[in-house]
Amino acid sequence: MSKYEEGLKIIEERCGNNKDNVISLATIATEPSADGNPIPIVRDIDAYYEEGVFYAVTYGKSNKMHQIAQNKEVAFSVNFEWFSGNGIGENLGWVLDPKNAEIRTKLREVFAPWYDDANNEQDENCCILAIRLTRGTVIKDHGAVRYNMDFVNKIETNEGIII
Question: Are 136 and 149 in contact (CB under 8 A)?
Answer without folding.
Answer: yes
